[in-house]
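Re: that backbone. Tokens:
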């Protein structure tokens, strides 16, 4: 299903001032910015804070332009769960603003989740789209029907993702994979796959900590012993450990699957998630590696 963003202004860190009459909205991550753009269409000016799929989101430092965008925003969508704490700091600098802040972690009851990559849970982004439509309607009641119609279109496009996940689960449930960190764990679980990598190892890599030697031994054995059919890795973060594991996987004919933390350029969240599902399926059914998305 084709997706159109409408005549919107979707910007990253270099966001320019919005046109008169547009609602200023901010997505802490580009995936949430895309949801805002899809729902708000002609009536929003979107700033996506973390928007470069070639950089590590954990190392983000806010610019003055981003601080200004947050100060002037009527609606902000941020991940929460400790993933984008810089947003709280920037928001507190303009605490008197009459803005609405949507925390996805709070919305999905995952505030204390050890895995903050909440957008990979198949139910998350459609729920965010629904709440965004409601919040935009509260800000601009005259356009409520417009926002509701675009949320309906969003949900219709998401059905392709749901169908792909259901099909993969039917075909591949119980198959084993390994990961470098928990970026796509929610999606892999929804597909019925078994992630054999110890969570302590995943969390250490995610947090930039050297994994425990025994966990590294376990991870390497999964690849050399062909206990898994694919290694899913964070395409935006690399370290000597993850680089060596990717090489080890290829040496032992274990397919690689690139998972992204932020929306790849040129994609909508629906096409992004569909591409990720298809990449996992290709790895498990044909041994095909996907080391980057288009």
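Recovered sequence:
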């Amino acid at each position: 299903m084709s997706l159109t963003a409408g005549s919107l202004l979707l910007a990253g860190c270099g966001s320019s001032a919005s046109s008169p009459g547009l609602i200023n909205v901010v997505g802490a991550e580009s995936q949430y910015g895309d949801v805002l753009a899809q729902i708000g269409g002609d009536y929003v000016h979107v700033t996506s804070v973390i928007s470069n799929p070639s950089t590590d989101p954990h190392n983000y430092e806010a610019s003055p332009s981003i601080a200004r965008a947050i100060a002037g925003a009527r609606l902000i969508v941020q991940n929460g769960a400790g993933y984008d704490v810089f947003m709280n700091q920037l928001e507190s600098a303009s605490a008197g603003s009459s803005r609405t802040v949507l925390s996805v972690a709070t919305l999905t009851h995952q505030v204390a989740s050890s895995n903050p990559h909440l957008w990979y849970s198949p139910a998350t982004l459609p729920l965010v789209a629904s709440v965004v439509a409601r919040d935009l309607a509260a800000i601009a009641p005259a356009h409520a029907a417009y926002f509701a119609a675009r949320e309906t279109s969003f949900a219709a496009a998401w059905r392709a993702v749901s169908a792909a996940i259901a099909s993969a689960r039917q075909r591949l449930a119980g198959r084993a994979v390994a990961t470098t960190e928990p970026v796509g764990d929610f999606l892999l679980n929804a597909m019925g796959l078994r992630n054999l990598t110890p969570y302590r190892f995943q969390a250490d890599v995610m947090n930039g900590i050297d994994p425990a030697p025994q966990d590294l031994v376990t991870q390497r054995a999964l690849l050399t012993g062909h206990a898994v059919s694919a290694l899913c890795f964070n395409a935006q973060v690399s370290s000597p450990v993850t680089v060596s594991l990717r090489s080890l996987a290829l040496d032992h004919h274990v397919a690689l699957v690139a998972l992204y933390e932020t929306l790849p350029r040129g994609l909508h969240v629906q096409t992004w998630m569909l591409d990720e599902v298809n990449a996992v399926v290709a790895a498990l059914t044909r041994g095909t590696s996907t080391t980057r998305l288009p």
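The chain has two domains: 9-161, 167-286. Residues 1-16 have pLDDT under 50 and may be disordered.
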